[in-house]
Amino acid sequence: MSEPQQESLTQRVLPIDAGTHVIRAQFLGEDPTLALADGRILTGGAGAFISPHGDAAILLAACNGIILLTGGDDGKVIATTPGGASEILGDEKGRWIDALAIGPSGSVAWSTGKKVVARDGKGERKEWTAPSTAQGLVFSPKGYRIAISHYNGVSLWFPNTAGIPEVREWKGSHLDVTLSPDGRFLVTSMQENMLHGWRLADGKDMRMSGYPSKTRSFSWSHDGHWLATSGADAAIIWPFKDKEGPMGKAPRECGVRHSKVSAVAFHPRALVVAIGYEDSCILLCRLTDGAELLVRPATKEGGKVTSMGWNRTGNRMIFGTEEGAAGVLTLP
Amino acid sequence: MSDKIPVTVLTGYLGAGKTTLLNRILTEPHGKKFAVIVNEFGEIGIDNDLVVGADEEVFEMNNGCICCTVRGDLIRIIEGLMKRKGKFDAIIVETTGLADPAPVAQTFFVDEDVSARARLDAVVTVVDARWLKNQLKDAPEVKNQIAFADVIVLNKIDLVSAEELVSAEKSIRSINAYATIHKTTRSSVPLDAVLGKNAFDLDRILDIAPEFLEDVHVHHDEAIQSVALTVSGDIDPEKFMPWINEFTQKEGPNILRCKGILSFKDEPKRFVFQGVHMILDGDLQREWKQDETRQSKMVFIGHQLNRAAIEKAVEACRA
């Protein structure tokens, strides 16, 4: 569309044919890694696949660079480490895994229906039953605490204490949940195409609305000052630097195009956000001046961008789409 | 349109024969693969098909519409199933015997991610001929399930007399004037009677031929009934559209289903609409044929609908 003004990085992308829906694209250590819907995991270089879930499908995955955690429709939760070694951390006997999270010191959490399981680095398991299906999980950056989104709110659970979890209530169905890196703000995406936020210190509510579709991808900037979100015809980026968070402020819009944003991923060291669209286009956008770089042009058969991830230093980025297109960008 | 996965919703009160019908669908040689969403595992299990357990979690939408409920678990399951595109041809959702079909149906209209990939094909309700009379007295769910149906499998007819069967059919008709009824024993219906019906597709609403139309005397005590109208002569869209919108907004909680084929003034094409509670879908469809009588027909199925008021309102929409 605006190709003449837009600088391009397309020559610096090494394509990968994943062949099927990419659930998650991340770096595991320095290995570009794809978790695929057909159950395969591509990691550790050219064409090396592992299938720790056997014939089952991978429904969702999380990755912190140290482990890749996958949840399958076989009910298994499996951790894969760089090099491709896998370990079964949980087995819910065929019940679909609905949410996953990776926490500090080797801890992980998953949920199936109302059942939430936390497993610490030593392998000790704790269980809690949510009031309704746990749709999203996120670990607090401080302490062994998990925020669990469900119908009508979010519960804050300390797996190692017997007390009843605190609940932040807000009417409606809460989908994914995220916490700001400083732990001050809790944000959920909702069925009704909006975000809901709480300032944890005083429980003050924030409504972030105006999205034409659901937000299913969040990403915090490295300094924790910005939250990029999908669901609109641009990446909607909310300011969280001040004490008040985004309250009373308008968000930034980056990468406005005639296609909805389906995935966002902030660079780990700079105020640059990777924006993936439903038409398979990917842009890098610099927050300070709005400058854009094209990573992948929209193609008819490309499909919606489902996941993008940077390596630790931020010189490489991996992406994948619903139709199995994938690739690794290496920055100059 | 055509690449959307068709979804058949299977309802019916406890013991009516739902699972028998489901097993029948799955075992018949049709060369199709189904993804089946069930509430209890165990009684079915066909190697070729994908069976998923569900929790029937009904959520209210915060859109100011109290009757606008969806099945949260269904949204998640369909999202998960779509990652396995090509592994199956159709989805069957089996509800529990006590379930209200409305949230299931509404999920396919209200959730944009679901409606982009899947389409509701039909609501199929299995009815127990033997116990229907009692259930209509004691179980409000049964009325709801019948009212919502596009296809009714009136099962266990070998266990009732001819008179009882006629009376069961009349009871069904008084609630739902337009569903197709199949009388069976052991839920034995041909597959094409329950699958591939396109009952929610405007292009397929070819005719509304409510039976027992004149028979307004039957079971006036029923809380749910059909109000069917035929208006000869043209309708003025400028009057009708605001009315139907307001009517469904106001009476939405009471209207379970509605359908209509209308003759608009100076419009060569037929206007077709259908709805679930407050959700309305309508469009101009094919042209009226030369030999066709231009008239408007509509059916509303719901609780405590005021027939006289609806008739009067529609009458006022004449061109």
Provide the descriptors you would attach to this structure in a database record.
heterodimer, A: 332 residues, mainly beta, 6-stranded antiparallel sheet, 31 strands, 0% helix, globular, B: 319 residues, alpha/beta, Rossmann fold, Hypothetical Protein Yjia, Chain: A,domain 2, 2 domains, 7-stranded parallel sheet, 5-stranded antiparallel sheet, 9 helices
Structure description:
The complex is a heterodimer of chains A (332) and B (319). Chain A is globular, with a radius of gyration of 19 Å. Chain A has a 6-stranded antiparallel β-sheet with strand order 15-16-17-18-19-20, with no helix packed on it. Chain A is mostly beta strands. Chain A starts with 6 loop residues before the first strand and ends with a strand. The relative contact order of chain A is 0.13. Chain A has strands at residues 7-8, 13-17, 22-28, 31-36, 41-42, 49-50, 58-63, 68-72, 76-80, 86-91, 99-102, 108-112, 115-119, 125-129, 136-139, 146-157, 166-179, 185-190, 194-199, 204-208, 218-220, 226-229, 235-239, 252-254, 261-266, 272-277, 282-286, 292-296, 305-310, 316-321, 325-330. Chain B has 319 residues and is an alpha/beta fold. Chain B has 2 domains: 5-200, Rossmann fold; 204-315, CobW-like, C-terminal domain (Hypothetical Protein Yjia, Chain: A,domain 2, 2-Layer Sandwich), CATH 3.30.1220. Chain B is 28% helix and 29% strand. Chain B contains 9 helices and 14 strands. Chain B has helices at residues 18-27, 72-81, 101-110, 112-117, 132-138, 140-148, 162-175, 237-251, 307-315; strands at 5-12, 34-38, 50-53, 58-60, 69-71, 90-94, 118-128, 151-155, 180-183, 224-232, 255-262, 269-276, 279-287, 295-303. In chain B, the strands form 3 sheets. Chain B has a 7-stranded parallel β-sheet with strand order 3-2-6-1-7-8-9, with helices on both faces. Chain B has a 5-stranded antiparallel β-sheet with strand order 10-14-11-12-13, sandwiched between helices. The two termini of chain B are 34 Å apart. The interface between A and B is medium-sized, with 25 and 22 residues.
